[in-house]
Amino acid sequence: MISLRQIRSFVAVYEEGSFTAAALREGATQSGMSHHVGQLEGELGAALFARSGRAVTPTRAGELYYEECIAVLQRLEAARQRVADQRLNGVIRAGLMPSFTRALLPPVLDRFLAAAPAAQISVIEAYSGVLTEMVRRGELDFAVIPAFAGADGIVHRPLLRDRETLVRGRQRGRKARPSVCLSQLGPLKVVLPGLQNTRRGNIETYFATNGITVAQRLELDAMMGTLQFVAASDWVAILPFVMMAADLDDDRFEIMPLEDPPFHAEFVLIEPARTVMSPTAALFAQLLREEAANTQAVFAKRMGPTPPQSPARSGARTAKSRS
User: Fold this and answer.
1) 39 and 29 together in one domain
2) Domain limits at 29?
3) Which secondary structure element, helix H or strand E, spans residue 53, and what is its range?
4) Among the three residues 53, 83, 113, which one is the final residue of a domain in this structure?
5) Are residues 48 and 179 in the same domain?
6) Mind listing the pLDDT tens digit for each residue in 121-177?
7) 27, 247, 292, 320: which has the highest count of C-beta atoms within 10 A?
8) What gap in Å lies between CA 135 and CA 143, rounded to an integer?
9) Buried b (16+ CB within 10 A) or exposed e, 230-263
């Protein structure tokens, strides 16, 4: 008879790509993981992995069985939640990028703690690569990151389609612009996130595609440091509007949506494929979604086709297979 332990072992090996990494994730021994998977293959009468040294690659049977196992684990977790205490309590662990912690987190926390005072929440701030790995290992209930191709063991759903903006220090005598075409600004001195950040590749592609000249690049994976440096220098940064919405009336920055062509940033909410989000975590995620939508309303009102000083004009959950 197939056991739940065998299923969990198989899912861990599939998602980690090795018995050693799967054993570390599950707090088991490598020999134990190999034994459980071997028993499962014996019960099914089919090889689930092709083994080559320490590397394992799912067979076609393994790929099909993984999808079924994920559905089983999700149903078991949903059943547990239905019979458990459904009050908004317990511990939730969320991962957010600096773009979201700076602007969205304060109002979200205020609303969340008022609705779920018995809950405990841990918010981890990191960049996309770190957060994706933490979600895949089950160390976070969910995270918000830039849209990406996907990874084994993770499901994702759209959260926000935002506009990228040019952010620079405000200077006396310089006329404010409602938007900007970067190719008309001349060589840029631009602060960029590191190469491991998903947004870096998107920004560089936008530069190359639209003939934008960059005189100097400075890599800085420190968001507060980036803003302080930009405010005090002639360097600029490309940042999503969601991060700068609270700074529209700050006299330190000029915040201008990129035009000709517009540049969009896509953000998704990711969570482990084998679990179901608790009601408490789902509430926090929903509040994040609502606050993100509020920033889009601000953009339509303040950063639309008319300059900011003019009267404003109104303006599915899927799993990623192996690739």
Assistant:
1) yes
2) 4-83
3) none
4) 83
5) no
6) 999 999 888 999 999 889 999 999 999 877 788 999 999 999 999 999 998 767 667
7) 292
8) 7
9) bbeeebbbbbbbbbbbebeeeeebbbbbbbeeeb
